[in-house]
Design brief:
Aminopeptidase, Alpha-Beta Plaits, five-stranded antiparallel β-sheet, 9 helices, six-stranded mixed β-sheet
């Protein structure tokens, strides 16, 4: 168990409820900043050194809190934004406790984990617990849309750190933490054709949809499940009426890769589809890798072994897994900084109406994170 007294699962759930009931959709900068304000006030009150980074591009700001100490810090990073819009609590996903499950919008992804990080740092400061290295807490506002305004800050703090802990949700099933994640990329493919009457002047047209259909099949052919590469084309759009040859069409492309080399290969293949086409159309392609792969390394395995040993003493197993979805841990691992992800609470239903955590596991999972913060260092 950590030296820091973190309290019971009941106590943690009571305070976590306040975070969940403060709705923070990524699209509402003011709402996110309001929760950041609450976290800042409590961390300042116990002696945390605070840096607020103002929001830009319509997003909320970010919060950096530091504990005293010498040497390279341990960085723990989470996000406060969720995919849920205002009114979710009053509609399809109210906060409620049903047996072992505590439901609410964003409770699993990832307010429970971000609260773990905040609570651990606050209590380390309040109780004046001496940690092996200083601790940096980073809370961001735009992870759910790819961290466009926080990536540089995440990378800045990671470069200063000896290790990075990401309290994204634990795996389900298995309650696993994460030592590897796929890289994530996005493209937008747009086709420009030539309109014509589909009956009287068919030969004068150039169908953007025909070109797009051919390209979608080529993109789908890049899938390599054994190698960890997937692609998905959606949404798809094009055309106006059945009797008009479509002069515009397009789609978005999501792709996931296990390695940086595969990411470069997919980028080259899709970007190579741009330009004049045999059908007399023209294709433009924008986008590329959004998050680099988080590739498993000896350093991440060593972090997992340490976390697993702590969890075993607390009384539960902590396996590891590779996960297809990306997180801010992708950025830090790509810098070569030892990174362990998936240290949040157990549960299920991220981005779904049955989203929940197994609330009785709040204290043991938070204790593992807190002891890592106390004991990691150079």
């Amino acid at each position: 168990m950590p030296v820091t007294e973190i309290g019971t699962s009941e106590r943690l759930l009571e305070e976590l409820r306040g975070w969940v009931e403060h709705e923070t959709p990524t699209t509402d900068a003011a709402a996110i900043d309001g929760l950041m304000d609450k976290a800042e006030a409590e961390l300042r009150a116990v002696g945390g050194a605070i840096e607020r980074v103002p929001g830009v591009e319509g997003f909320g700001g970010h919060l950096v809190a530091r504990t005293p100490g010498e040497g390279r810090p341990v960085l723990v990073a989470g996000h406060l934004d969720t995919v849920w819009g205002h009114g979710t609590l009053a509609g399809p996903v109210p906060f409620r406790v049903e047996g072992e499950k505590a439901h609410g919008p964003g409770i699993y992804d990832m307010k429970a984990g971000s609260f773990f990080a905040f609570h651990s740092v606050r209590e380390i400061l309040r109780q004046k617990v001496k940690t092996r290295s200083p601790v940096t807490l980073l809370l961001t506002s735009d992870e759910e849309v790819g961290s466009p305004t926080s990536r540089a800050l995440i990378e800045r703090e990671a470069r200063r750190a000896c290790a990075v802990l990401i309290p994204e949700p634990a795996g389900n099933p298995g309650r696993a933490c994460v030592t590897a994640r796929k890289g994530v990329g996005r493209f937008v493919v747009k086709v420009q054709g030539t309109s014509a009457h589909a009956g009287g002047n068919w030969e004068e047209g150039a169908s953007a949809i025909v070109t797009l259909a051919r390209l979608i099949t080529q993109i789908h052919a890049l899938v390599d499940l054994p190698g960890g590469t997937t692609t998905n084309c959606a949404p798809v759009w094009g055309g106006t009426r059945p009797n008009v040859i479509p002069n515009e069409a397009g789609c978005e492309v999501d792709f996931r890769v296990a390695t940086a080399a595969d990411g470069a290969r997919i980028e080259a293949a899709v970007r190579g589809m741009a330009g004049p086409q045999p059908e007399g159309t023209h294709v433009t392609v924008t986008g590329g890798m959004n998050r680099p792969p988080m590739e498993e390394s000896p350093a991440s395995l060593a972090l997992h072994a340490r976390a697993q040993e702590i969890a075993a003493r607390i009384g539960y197993d902590l396996p590891r897994q590779h996960r297809g979805g990306g997180s801010d841990g992708n950025f830090t691992a790509a810098l070569g900084v030892p990174t362990l992800d998936g240290l949040g609470c157990s549960g299920a239903g991220a981005h779904a109406e049955f989203e929940h955590v197994l609330w009785r596991e709040l204290a043991p999972r938070c204790a593992t994170l807190c002891e890592l913060l106390e004991t990691l260092g150079d």
